């Protein structure tokens, strides 16, 4: 299975899930050119592509699964035991024919790698391992093995290449204790203490002695590792090195690995004599996928191993020292390494030779400036053709990974040949590399800025607007540094942009504003989100629109510690200090003074009641920047107190509270806070505003909403109730019904709790109304959906909630037959409602964008029927005394009703740990009577019980079409298939 997920938090669980099925995974870097991705897919022929978002891979016949919430909704499967000899993954390396070669690695290699590296680097369960490598680069495998093998933590930084100051910030900010880095990347990291960094391992290219001297300090373990992809990443590793000025060895073999230094006749050479490295043991790969010729050439019989064992011929030269340590001496063939990436010049040559203007091509690595290797291509034009270097570079950039794109292309009349007829590399001319070649001075602020950044990163003078970054000596690592510094200067470019645009002039035209790709400060003004615009339109007392939670305060906690914990939250999350200004929000750079009200609880006082009274008295004015108020209810010496946090709803939602609880607990305990949040709420709001006006998706999705909401009126109060005063009644299911509804029913019908609860609500509404076949309802979602631009809001505090309409229509299945025991209507209704919910695009996010932020689509959507019932399932909340806190709720009259009825359901933990589903039915006084709403609530509870009883009948439940996104089956076809399978299984049982 191909995993096109990039370096994200979604990759490790997806990778493990694939392996638990017994399949092998194929990592695909989404940043690779489409042609390179296509070649990898053709070569490996996966049965499925798993992508993080649509459009990541080029159009292919391979079924594609896009990960979203629904992808995780199914119950876990019981996997078979893994065979140690089964293939674990396929990673592609550079191939001399122009096509990458897929290396097939077994699970035995992963096991040996994890055990060997964890022991060599002395890692333990407290280790925090950096995931730096691209998933298509095999160093990422070693990083996973180090984290999982030690029981430590795998730290996944934001997507994109990292080097220089950006990498330094990650090392310190994420408290990294172990990192695997190519020496050229480590060399870009500025000097510093890095006290948490206990172990460093370098590899993938030669390590200079001065790098060891610089980093092997302060008790830090510094290791030099060696190993090709064909031997599961690492075959040898040195012991802890000291900066003694000598070339660091590549060490000795990992446990179980055998290393031979042989001559051309496969005879061992004495210590101190140069020979070719051969590797054997459990880490040796099976070979190259679908390529028996290259496999037989490189994977040869091991004369010292058991019958049938093979060893891998690396092509690397080495010698064994008297102490048994190995020294790396270079390559025996044309293969080279630049910045840690293994490169076959033949692959670049083959790609360039495919261009119609090229007759011959060659690619070599030149080091015209010490320590600055560059990949240079030379071409000879075909008959009547005049190759243009810029066009060839663009052609290569569209077909090769960034590391394989030449820094320069030179056009020659002919390629120089040696007397033996081979390419004479020494006779190839050096490309021009002097600054100021273009002769044109920069014009405009962007060009001036970029020219200055070129000079700063490259260490040259007088860069012109048309000077080429790579002709000036740039490389892939410097491209990362340039992108980072451009971001801080207000220009958003990526390292790939540098490879394709190459000059300040072109980069100035293509760079985006810093707020798009640059540093996310989380401050400044930004637009209101859709749910906030809806809230403003409702009117009411804005100062009472608050939510409160109460948290336990450990004994012997002083006031200074409590205030520091609350201050840490405000500093960390800009939403907690933002201000409503002229219809926009603003987060100031300066953190306001944070105070905590100290309330001494009298003896015998009920803490919970005191907390509720404290929260009820709080008023917060968003126009004054009042977003948070804290009160410490101090029970006295030796007693645990309570901390009441009241936050304006503009700054918090249900997910946010789940984030704030552990962070506050860490602050109260004096522990460091978890990893920093990703995308700020301010940036998220700006991204939403841009997402709303993207032309193609806006038109397509607005048409979907118009089609979906058209039809007969399916409301419960004719659309009345907006702005009315609120009354509330609460119903609660028994623990037995709660457990059955949320486990048995969801498992039988392969759905989430929301589908069960909404089916029951639709059935209750139809029965109370006495007519119709469905219900028009507003639903709420968490709102943290994927956008067209990258954003990580999984740890961001703010009001992300989405609100969107859905027509819950299941035809006659919601009628009288739903309530009849022994009928199929209840199950049929649940399946249809489940399908309608899953058909909503982007988790409903698009409705708010198009309804409130897009001036073209807003009028059309505003004319559609507005639901007069809202439903929100909040999930499970603890019943009390935990570090995560207890929700006290929102003042009942804080917000005028936007609907005739608003249902908020959640699962509460009662005494003894039993779970009960509780639902508050807020209703519009004067529009619906209490008896009418009580009847609706009672029918809803009964409908849930009907679904439970239906599920307990034999033969109920089953799948729906959305459970099988890779095949095109309608409900009738699926039912026939399930019947056939059931018949076949019964028949087999009879036999």
TrEMBL record:
Cofactor names from the entry are: pantetheine 4'-phosphate
Record carries keyword Nucleotide-binding:
no
Please name the Gene3D superfamilies in this protein's record.
3.30.300.30, ACP-like, Chloramphenicol acetyltransferase-like domain, N-terminal domain of ligase-like, Nonribosomal peptide synthetase, condensation domain
Which GO molecular-function terms appear in the entry?
catalytic activity; phosphopantetheine binding
Identify one Gene Ontology CC term for this UniProt entry: cytoplasm
Q: Which Pfam families match?
A: AMP-binding (PF00501), AMP-binding_C (PF13193), Condensation (PF00668), PP-binding (PF00550)
UniProt domain Carrier: residue ranges: 441-515
Q: The organism sits in which domain of life?
A: Bacteria
Query: What's any GO biological process attached to this entry?
Result: amino acid activation for nonribosomal peptide biosynthetic process
Keywords (alphabetical) are:
Antibiotic biosynthesis, Phosphopantetheine, Phosphoprotein, Repeat
PANTHER family the record matches: FATTY ACID SYNTHASE, NONRIBOSOMAL PEPTIDE SYNTHETASE
Which NCBIfam families does the annotation name? Answer: AA-adenyl-dom, NRPS-para261
Output this protein's name. Putative Amino acid adenylation
Which species is listed as the source?
Streptomyces viridochromogenes Tue57
């Amino acid at each position: 299975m191909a995993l096109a997920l990039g370096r994200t938090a979604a990759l490790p669980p997806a990778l493990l899930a694939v392996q638990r099925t017994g399949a092998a995974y194929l990592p695909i870097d989404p940043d690779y050119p489409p042609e390179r991705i296509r070649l990898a897919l053709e070569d490996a022929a996966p049965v499925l592509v798993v992508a993080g978002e649509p459009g990541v891979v080029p159009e292919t016949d391979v079924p594609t699964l896009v990960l979203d919430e629904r992808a995780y909704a199914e119950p876990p499967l019981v996997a078979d035991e893994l065979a140690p000899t089964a293939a674990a993954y396929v990673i592609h390396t550079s191939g001399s024919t122009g096509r990458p070669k897929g290396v097939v690695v077994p699970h035995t290699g992963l096991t040996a790698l994890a055990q060997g590296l964890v022991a060599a680097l002395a890692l333990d369960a407290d280790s925090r391992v950096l995931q730096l490598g691209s998933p298509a680069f095999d160093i990422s495998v070693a990083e996973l093995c180090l984290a999982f093998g030690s029981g430590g933590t795998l730290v996944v930084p934001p997507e994109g290449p990292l080097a220089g100051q950006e990498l330094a910030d990650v090392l310190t900010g994420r408290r990294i204790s172990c990192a695997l880095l190519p020496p050229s990347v480590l060399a870009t990291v500025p000097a510093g203490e890095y006290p948490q960094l206990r172990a460093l391992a370098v590899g993938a290219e030669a390590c200079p002695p001065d790098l060891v001297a610089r980093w092997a300090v302060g008790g830090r373990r510094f290791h030099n590792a060696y190993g090709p992809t064909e031997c599961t990443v690492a075959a040898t590793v040195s012991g802890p090195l000291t900066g003694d000025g000598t070339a660091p060895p590549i060490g000795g073999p990992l446990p179980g690995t055998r290393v031979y230094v042989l001559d051309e006749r496969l005879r061992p050479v004495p210590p101190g004599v140069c020979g070719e490295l051969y590797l054997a043991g459990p880490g040796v790969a099976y070979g190259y996928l679908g390529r028996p010729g290259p496999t037989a050439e490189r994977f040869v019989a091991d004369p010292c191993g058991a019958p049938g064992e093979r060893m891998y011929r690396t092509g690397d030269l080495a010698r064994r020292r008297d102490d048994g340590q190995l020294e790396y001496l270079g390559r025996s063939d044309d293969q080279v390494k630049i910045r840690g990436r293994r490169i076959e010049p033949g692959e670049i040559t083959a790609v360039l030779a495919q261009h119609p203007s090229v007759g011959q091509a060659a690619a070599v690595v030149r080091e015209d400036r010490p320590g600055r290797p560059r990949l240079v291509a030379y071409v000879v034009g075909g008959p009547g053709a005049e190759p243009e270097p810029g066009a060839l570079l663009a052609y290569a950039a569209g077909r090769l990974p960034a590391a394989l794109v030449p820094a320069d292309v030179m056009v020659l009349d002919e390629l120089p040949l040696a007397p033996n007829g081979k390419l004479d590399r020494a006779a190839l001319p050096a490309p021009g590399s002097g600054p100021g070649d273009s002769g044109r001075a920069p014009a405009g602020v962007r060009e001036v800025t970029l020219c200055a950044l070129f000079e700063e990163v490259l260490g040259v003078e007088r860069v012109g607007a048309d000077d080429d970054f790579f002709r000036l000596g740039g490389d892939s690592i410097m491209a990362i540094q340039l992108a980072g510094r451009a971001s801080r200067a207000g220009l958003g470019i990526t390292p790939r942009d540098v490879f394709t645009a190459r000059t300040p002039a072109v980069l100035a035209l293509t760079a985006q504003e810093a707020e798009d790709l640059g540093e996310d400060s989380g401050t400044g003004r930004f637009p209101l989100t859709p749910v906030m615009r809806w809230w403003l339109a409702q009117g009411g007392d804005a100062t009472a629109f608050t939510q409160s939670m109460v948290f336990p305060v450990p004994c012997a906690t002083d006031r200074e510690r409590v205030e520091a914990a609350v201050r840490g939250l405000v500093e960390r999350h800009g939403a907690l200090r933002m201000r409503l200004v002229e219809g926009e929000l603003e987060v100031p750079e300066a953190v306001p003074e944070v105070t905590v009200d100290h309330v001494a609880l009298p003896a015998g006082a009920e803490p919970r009641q005191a907390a509720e009274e404290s929260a009820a008295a709080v008023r917060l004015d968003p126009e004054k920047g009042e977003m948070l108020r804290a009160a410490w209810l101090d029970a006295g010496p030796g007693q645990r107190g309570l901390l009441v946090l009241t936050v304006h709803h503009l700054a918090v939602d249900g997910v946010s509270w789940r984030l704030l609880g552990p962070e506050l607990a860490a602050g109260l305990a004096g522990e460091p806070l978890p990893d920093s949040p990703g995308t700020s709420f301010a940036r998220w709001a700006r991204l939403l505003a841009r997402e709303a006006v993207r032309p193609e998706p806006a038109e397509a999705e607005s048409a979907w909403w118009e089609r979906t909401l058209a039809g007969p009126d399916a409301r419960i109060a004719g659309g009345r109730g907006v702005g009315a005063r609120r009354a509330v009644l609460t119903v609660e299911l028994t623990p037995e019904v709660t457990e059955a509804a949320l486990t048995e029913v969801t498992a039988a019908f392969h759905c989430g709790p929301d589908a069960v609860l909404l089916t029951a609500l639709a059935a209750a509404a139809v029965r109370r109304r006495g007519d119709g076949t469905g219900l028009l309802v507003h639903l709420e979602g968490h709102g943290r959906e994927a956008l067209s631009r990258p954003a990580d809001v999984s740890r961001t505090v703010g009001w992300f909630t989405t609100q969107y309409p859905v027509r819950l229509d299941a035809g006659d299945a919601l009628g009288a037959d739903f309530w009849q025991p022994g009928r199929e209507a209840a199950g049929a209704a649940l399946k249809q409602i489940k399908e309608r919910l899953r058909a909503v695009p982007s988790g409903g996010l698009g409705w708010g964008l198009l309804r409130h932020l897009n001036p073209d689509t807003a009028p059309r959507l505003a004319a559609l029927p507005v639901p007069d019932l809202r439903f929100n399932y909040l999930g499970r909340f603890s019943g009390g005394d935990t570090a995560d806190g207890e929700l006290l709720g929102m003042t009942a009259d804080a917000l005028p009703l936007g609907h005739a009825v608003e249902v908020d359901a959640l699962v509460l933990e009662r005494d003894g740990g039993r779970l009960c589903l509780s639902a508050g039915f807020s209703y519009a006084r004067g529009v619906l009577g209490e008896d009418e709403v009580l009847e609706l609530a009672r029918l809803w509870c009964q409908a849930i019980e009907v679904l439970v009883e239906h599920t307990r009948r034999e033969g109920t439940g089953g799948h729906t079409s959305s459970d099988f996104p890779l095949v095109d089956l309608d409900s009738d076809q699926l039912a026939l298939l399930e019947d056939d399978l059931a018949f076949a299984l019964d028949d087999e049982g009879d036999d």
